């Protein structure tokens, strides 16, 4: 990796610092238990790529003159997205999130669900109290898409009948819709035209798809890509490397691989056999080509905007999404 995420973030370091203060303030509550949980959530910040997309996209249209609407837009996305993550951990019965205990692991499911509801209501109120209807519309649509994508994946996992078009529908909704909303919110908060907001949204969607494809590659990793863990196979998730490998397989091989995914997904040896088959059948190469194609499409959209420091930062950020090692 030629440049780190911290270096990419440098041009908006002040905005990110101010955003973090504003976001912490927006999470405060008079209820002691809730305030304690909010503090815990805020401390577990990840890569912070979502607000980075918001701020860089806003700067693309307004230079350094970022207004309060952009900070509110970034906060809205974080509030609604954090609400979905808290609820996801309850649904998945997950005890960890980013290496920390999940809210439901520490405070049980009932409290976690209520915390998710609280975050959702905070996000809605933040927009309504400031008449940010356009921003609320963009982010609410993303949350709807994410829910539909998750349900589509659950439905298909039961039957293991995901083809390539369904796979792209799932990742467009589950992952790409969120990054698309970050870019659209950044543009809208900076007063961009409807045409430019849509271009920003489509740019984010392409980046989001490339990002998720990279995540799916980690499951089959090589020395260049990551660690072979086989988590997706264990969870019966049909991702692009496996979909392509099965499409190229003869009937008997296809039947054997699907049987292993469906019935032997808890057996590490069988899971490794599936991973090895995907590698030897060209699944990894095919998937890397698809990821690079979406990266190129995102760049092409970005280059319809005038050259600027923010455009350069966005170029670096999307390069990071496909070159990262974790």
From TrEMBL:
Keywords: Magnesium, Metal-binding, Transferase
Classification via InterPro entries: Isoprenoid_synthase_dom_sf, Polyprenyl_synt, Polyprenyl_synt_CS
CDD domains linked to this entry: Trans_IPPS_HT
Cofactor(s) essential for the protein: Mg(2+)
Highest taxon listed in the record's lineage: Bacteria
Pfam families given in the database record: polyprenyl_synt
PANTHER family documented for this protein: ALL TRANS-POLYPRENYL-DIPHOSPHATE SYNTHASE PDSS1, GERANYLGERANYL PYROPHOSPHATE SYNTHASE
Family: Belongs to the FPP/GGPP synthase family.
Protein name: Polyprenyl synthetase family protein
Organismal lineage: Bacteria, Pseudomonadati, Bacteroidota, Cytophagia, Cytophagales
């Amino acid at each position: 990796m030629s440049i780190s995420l911290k270096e990419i973030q440098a041009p908006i370091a002040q905005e990110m610092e101010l955003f973090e203060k504003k976001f912490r303030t927006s999470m405060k509550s008079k209820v002691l238990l809730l305030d304690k949980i909010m503090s815990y959530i805020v401390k577990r910040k990840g890569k912070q790529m979502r607000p980075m997309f918001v701020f860089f996209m806003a700067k693309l249209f307004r230079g350094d003159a970022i207004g309060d609407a952009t900070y509110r837009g970034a906060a809205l996305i974080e509030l609604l997205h954090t609400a979905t993550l808290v609820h996801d951990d309850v649904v998945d019965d997950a005890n960890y999130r980013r290496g920390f205990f999940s809210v439901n692991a520490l405070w049980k499911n009932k409290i976690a669900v209520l915390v998710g509801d609280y975050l959702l209501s905070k996000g809605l109120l933040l927009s309504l109290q400031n008449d940010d209807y356009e921003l609320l519309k963009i982010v609410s649509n993303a949350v709807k898409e994410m829910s539909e994508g998750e349900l589509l994946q659950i439905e298909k996992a039961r039957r293991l009948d995901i083809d390539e078009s369904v796979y792209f529908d799932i990742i467009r909704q589950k992952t790409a819709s969120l990054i698309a909303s970050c870019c659209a919110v950044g543009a809208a908060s900076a007063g961009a035209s409807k045409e430019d907001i849509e271009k920003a949204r489509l740019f984010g969607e392409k980046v989001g798809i490339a990002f998720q494809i990279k995540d799916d590659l980690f499951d089959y990793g090589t020395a260049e890509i990551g660690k072979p863990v086989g988590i997706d196979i264990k969870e019966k998730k049909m991702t692009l490397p496996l979909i392509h490998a099965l499409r190229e397989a003869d009937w008997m091989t296809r039947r054997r691989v699907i049987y292993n995914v469906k019935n032997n997904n808890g057996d590490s040896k069988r899971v490794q056999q599936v991973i090895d088959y995907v590698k030897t059948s060209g699944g990894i190469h095919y998937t890397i080509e698809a990821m690079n194609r979406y990266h190129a499409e995102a760049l092409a959209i970005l280059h319809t905007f005038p050259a600027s420091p923010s455009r350069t930062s966005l170029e670096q950020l999307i390069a990071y999404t496909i070159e990262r090692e974790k």
